[in-house]
Prior knowledge:
By secondary structure, this protein is α+β, with helices and mostly antiparallel strands. The chain is 34% helix and 24% strand. The protein has helices at residues 2-8, 19-31, 96-113, 135-146, 194-215, 261-274, 276-283, 307-316, 330-336, 360-379; strands spanning 35-40, 47-53, 61-66, 85-87, 90-92, 122-127, 153-156, 165-168, 170-179, 183-184, 228-236, 242-243, 246-255, 288-297, 300-301, 322-324, 339-342, 357-359. Strands 1-2-6-3-7-17 form a six-stranded mixed β-sheet, sandwiched between helices. A four-stranded antiparallel β-sheet has the order 11-13-9-14. It has a three-stranded antiparallel β-sheet with strand order 4-5-18. A hairpin with a 6-residue loop joins strand 1 and strand 2. Helix 3 crosses helix 10. The protein is elongated, with a radius of gyration of 24 Å.
Amino acid sequence: MAMLAHIVSYDTTSDRSDLPLIDWISGWMDAHGVSWSLSHDPSGEKANLHAIIGPREAGGLAFAGHVDTVPVTGQEWTGDPFVLREQGGKLIGRGAADMKGYVACMLAAVPDLVRIKLERPVHLLFTFDEEISCDGARVAMQDALENNLLPSVCVVGEPTLMTPVIAHKGRLAARLVARGKPGHSSRPAEGVNALHALGEAMAWVAAEARRLALEGRKVEGFEPPNSTIQIGFAQGGTAINIIPERAEALLEWRNVPGDDSHAMMARMEQELEATTGRWMREADPECGLTFEVLNELPPLALAADNPLTTAVKLATGANAEEFVSYGTEGGIYQQAGMTSIVCGPGSIEQAHRPDEWIARTQLERCDAFIRDMAQRVCARSTGAA
Ligand SMILES: [Zn+2]
């Protein structure tokens, strides 16, 4: 609770530097004789911290949490979001659930973890920018791989009410731009209508959305069980009698594990290139469609009988595992070669809301979970790692 109050007091909204909090965490590690290293974003204003307890080597178990939060601007808080307060077993503050609660449990466990005789390392990963791009996790993985310090398995502590979550969909967001040629509407042959081109692309997406629902690969456990596609925003043109020069749409794929979002986008590009792109280019070689990836998150898929799933079920006492509809850094970790699962205190229902809270009992369960997992995976001669 004191630890969470301290962590919450740092405003680590994603658009700000996380260095003051990371500095404090490094001091905490020093105070307990734990080795740590930083990896930065290109600006140097943000950093991940990777602490290692036990043998300083690859393998072992990682607990991973992001330290950034969503903004409080425009939200109706009934108190200072950066001052943790308790009301009837609920601890209220920005990030309490997503996911400073877990981060606080990771930090509070350090004095106990350093006393365990560890055969394999326990890694603590604190990352930046999860709420905007997950680039912190990418930088952390690159750093761990370069230094040969990649953990074998990882528990990402996004709020799941301490239920093991073994799968989520991936997401690819892209901007589609139709570059046309302006002109007067009375002389259509002299221009290239960007909105007509975008309209064809949008019709393609609508058909693809229906096709995926009917014939897409189904992965049981997801709702809906198939990959999806949608356009969420579109704009173009300036006036009714001017041939639009430019039009754009924002679209996203949410792919089930096993469906490759890049391949799905490539197919859209190819098919539209052969139809819409062709008539645009024939009218003017400068015209056409372009796709730009805005951000992406790989899906997470862990087998229900994976030893990590089993270890987390035993440590939490959960008898089932779940799938969720939101993305996490777990997909990036999995892709980097770290077997990953999502399990953390608090509810996703609370995430990003005004008066975000976490139940004190959730933190207590998480405290026990972290110690149990470290023992289970890293202290014995056999285990998930
Ligand atoms: Zn989160």
